[in-house]
């Protein structure tokens, strides 16, 4: 019996959970391979009996890039499937998006694992707030390993559940802004590139998870329609050449979300700022 864990990870948080789950499988004498969708795909899924799918939560939903990767897979009807998700703040009904994508491939999720994970979304970080900065921690990884052991033996799955709640309207607005149709229509309006500040270092090109940024003939970055508006290019840019045009509604939603997080004692947060393409303050986890 073999397992393949398919995941999306840019900052390595989801990757760490994926490795912990794989360790749980191995402790039950089941081979577990891993595939980050940003890398080349495995040659053949037929050799795997169990498939796992893991992703961070983007805009309280599944990242478009991960949904598209699932859609490219062959039918999964004969496979046993589990899923795992990481979020910086609230989960709400994000699992429903993943569940629907897998259902379209004929898969029913038999077990779920949820964990907190550091929130690198620039919409919040730019406002001085990083959520769950020290997660996943050792306890999260230990739980992920136990989850892997239970999935490997197909037992105790009822304990790996969480209540799914539909988000209030303000969060649904953010979900919509991260939908494929909205992104493809508005990504050029969202991103702002200041050519005068660009030093052509290539960091935005190298770090873009969707490979949406390419160099033009002069070496300046150019964004194409595979953009998923994760704003990671804005985060890593050392000069502030990559920025985002936030609409009045965007500012209203993001300001509201940050205020909500700051007032929630159940969510860890750090006071941070972005300097020269790096987040400063998160390692110390200074509570706000």
Task: Fill in the keyword field for this structure.
288 residues, alpha/beta, Rossmann fold, Alpha-Beta Plaits, 2 domains, 10 helices
Q: Tell me the strand order in the biggest sheet.
A: 2-1-3-4-5
Number of strands: 13
Query: CATH homologous superfamily of the largest domain?
Result: Flavodoxin domain
Question: Would you list the SSEs in sequence order as H and E?
Answer: EHEEHEHEHEHHHEHEEHEHEEE
CATH architecture of the largest domain: 3-Layer(aba) Sandwich
The pLDDT mean sits at: 91
Plain-language structure description:
By secondary structure, this protein is of the alpha/beta class. It folds into two domains: about 140 residues, Flavodoxin domain (Rossmann fold); about 110 residues, Alpha-Beta Plaits. The chain has ten helices and 13 strands. The chain has a five-stranded parallel sheet with strand order 2-1-3-4-5, with helices on both faces. The longest helix has 16 residues. The C terminus is likely disordered.
Please provide a brief summary of the model:
By secondary structure, the protein is an alpha/beta fold.
Would you spell out the secondary-structure blueprint of this structure?
Elements (H helix, E strand, L loop, with lengths): L1 E6 L5 H15 L3 E6 L13 E7 L7 H8 L8 E8 L6 H10 L5 E8 L5 H4 L3 E3 L6 H16 L15 H9 L2 H11 E3 L9 H5 L5 E3 L5 E3 L8 H5 L5 E3 L3 H16 L5 E3 L1 E3 L2 E3 L8
Parallel strand pairs: 1-2, 1-3, 3-4, 4-5
Antiparallel strand pairs: 6-11, 7-10, 8-9, 12-13
